[in-house]
Amino acid sequence: FVTMDTNILAVKTHLPGALKKLTEEELHIKLGHVGPAVFKNGKTCLICLAVRGNTHRRYKKIHAFIPLKVGWFFSTDIFTLDTPSRHGNSFHMITRCKKSGYYAENVFCDFKTDVMSKFCLMVQRIRKDPNLKQNGYPIVVSLTLDVATEWSEKCALWTAMCGDMGITLQYASTDDKRANADAESAVKHLTHTAKCILLESSLPAEWYQEAAEQARTIRNCMPLRRNIVSKDGCSLRPVEEITHGRISREECNRILMHTVPVGAICLVFNARIKNSALTSSKANWLMSIGRVHGAVQFWNPFNGSVVRSKTESLSLISLYSPS
Questions:
Q1: How many whole angstroms separate alpha carbon 206 and alpha carbon 211?
Q2: Suppose 172 and one of 30, 106, 179, 288 were both cysteines; which one would form an S-S bond, judging by CB atoms 3.0 to 4.6 Å apart?
Q3: What is the DSSP letter of 44?
Q4: pLDDT, mean of residues 34-51
Q5: Does the pLDDT value for residue 25 go beyond 70?
Q6: pLDDT tens column, 58-81
Q7: Burial, 154: exposed, middle or buried (Cβ in 10 Å; 0-12, 13-18, 19+)?
């Protein structure tokens, strides 16, 4: 769990612009509360403690084996939501690469019976991504998962589908959940970040899907603690490793820089409104709901419309709330 986590200070000095001037706590809040909950000055993030639960010592596995083939070995598990998202989904399938720590695309389902078809479509989609074709072999070749009804070895459709796609299934022990520790830690890291984003902005649970998408983007651009070996903290990022540099470290820093937390109230300007227009407002207060294809999406709470904006002329309020 610890080695697959990240560290805020590892990227702070390498981020462009005004992010370098933020304190460790402010950057921790902006990037979805990733990394340790205890800061250098001794302060503790109360939101992280509320989400992560107890803080007693957990003994880690000594000399754990790390696969050498990036994009080959993946682990997966399903996170069940007690409150359906605003899109009607109650199940979240999380898949992560064991070597690079890269999170594959999130799979959301309203029924567990939809896991097979949606997982198949997700794998086919990422295998067609030109950035993920640099390994010389198809991505997601070996999949480690627990024994569950929706994908057990008795399910003929699931085993046939994975066989047709060239995916080898490896089932963890049913006696101890630590046998599938990679998937358990992947679920914890992603869901903790998503819940911290919701708690920081005081959003209801229905917005979990947007928070989970942003948590995946942030985690893929942050280095793993086991990869931080240099004194300045500039280390390999998961998305950089799995694409073999097609997505550079500088681009990861740029994505982190332009991250607007889900739920942040922003003053978004409309360039199409002229200054001479006396009856139309040139800017509106909108709520950020994540980043899609390089542009931040904003939701209008008054009429429910969604707009995109790449302008950086926005004003964040209540982002750095006192802890």
A1: 10
A2: 179
A3: B
A4: 83
A5: yes
A6: 555 555 667 788 999 999 999 999
A7: exposed
Give SS3 for 298.
Answer: strand
Distance CA 174, CA 152 (A): 12
Among 13, 39, 17, CA closest to 26: 39
| Number of residues assigned to the chain | 323
What pLDDT shows up at residue 313?
47
- Residue 223 is encoded by which pair of tokens? 């280095």
53 in helix, strand or coil? coil
- Report the predicted TM-score, pTM, of the whole model to 2 decimal places: 0.84
**Angstrom distance (rounded) from CA 97 to CA 72:** 7
Q: How confident is the model at residue 189 (pLDDT cuts 50, 70, 90)?
A: very high
Q: What 8-state DSSP symbol labels residue 6?
A: B
Calpha distance 323→284 (Å, rounded): 28
3-state secondary structure of 25: helix
Count the Cβ atoms, other than its own, within 10 Å of residue 102. 24
Contact yes or no for 261/214 (Cβ under 8 A): yes
Question: CB of 323 within 8 A of CB of 46?
Answer: yes
Q: Is 294 left (phi over 0), alpha (psi -120 to 50) or beta?
A: left
pLDDT tens per residue across span 286-315: 889 988 877 888 998 888 888 887 664 444
Three-class HEC string of 82-140: CCCCCCCCCEEEEEEECCCCCECCCEEECCHHHHHHHHHHHHHHHHCCHHHCCCCCCCC
Q: Which is more confident, 185 or 178?
A: 185
Which candidate, 108, 118, 112, 179, places its Cα nearest to that of 148?
112
Residue 260 has what DSSP assignment? -
Helix (H, G, I), strand (E, B) or coil at 171: strand
Q: For helices 208-221 and 181-201, what crossing angle results, to 10°?
A: 120
